[in-house]
Specification:
- With 170 residues, the protein is mainly beta.
- The protein has a single domain, classed as Jelly Rolls (Sandwich), CATH 2.60.120.10.
- 2% of the residues lie in helices and 44% in strands.
- It is built from one helix and twelve strands; from the N terminus they run ββββββββββββα.
- The protein has a five-stranded antiparallel beta sheet with strand order 1-9-6-11-4, with no helix packed on it.
- The chain is globular and about 55 Å long.
- The two termini are 23 Å apart.
């Protein structure tokens, strides 16, 4: 699980269901004090998005929630001083659960769509900065993806391998 990654939090929310539909509520005030961007992403089965992050001084934290379908959410610790430096972890997020994943600065993040399609919403603490935007090739990290033939963007396919990446996170 993700308990051993300092700063990473699985945030339990609440769902309210009645004849009109469902409302999911997650309180993040003590975890993520500011939100600059909201991303709403729809992806098809076997799409792998990641491993993305922004380097300092424009690093961002993220709160991730799957609102439709099912994903395998994966993190990679890039903080040199961390006990889990270069280690990865994962959690399944689905439309049926009441959890979100908080990922602090210093982690690469990605996810694999397990269902026919999935919608993922993330809140980011800072704005997108193209000069600080970075990706690590997801096939180069020490993580056993449950499928081999995933669909990945050219950007992610051509991203630097983890062994060739020099972190800027302390």
């Amino acid at each position: 699980m993700l308990d051993n990654f300092d700063g990473v939090k699985v945030v339990k929310g609440n769902s309210f269901v009645d004849h009109r539909g469902e409302l999911k509520k997650t309180i993040i005030g003590d975890i993520m004090l500011s939100v600059s961007e909201i991303l709403n992403v729809t992806s098809s089965k076997n799409v792998l998005r990641g491993m993305h992050f922004q380097e300092p001084p424009n690093a961002v934290s993220k709160l991730v929630q799957c609102t439709q379908g099912e994903i395998l959410d994966v993190i990679l610790d890039l903080r040199k001083s961390s006990e889990t430096y270069l280690k990865s972890g994962s959690i399944q997020l689905t439309e049926k659960d009441d959890i979100s994943l908080f990922i602090p600065e210093g982690f690469a993040h990605g996810y694999l769509v397990l269902s026919d399609s999935a919608k993922v919403i993330y809140l980011q603490s800072g704005k997108y900065n193209s000069e600080s935007d970075f990706s690590i090739n997801p096939e180069s990290i020490n993580f056993k993806w449950p499928i081999k033939n995933f669909l990945v963007s050219e950007k992610d396919k051509n991203a630097v391998s983890l062994s060739n990446y020099s972190t800027k996170f302390e």
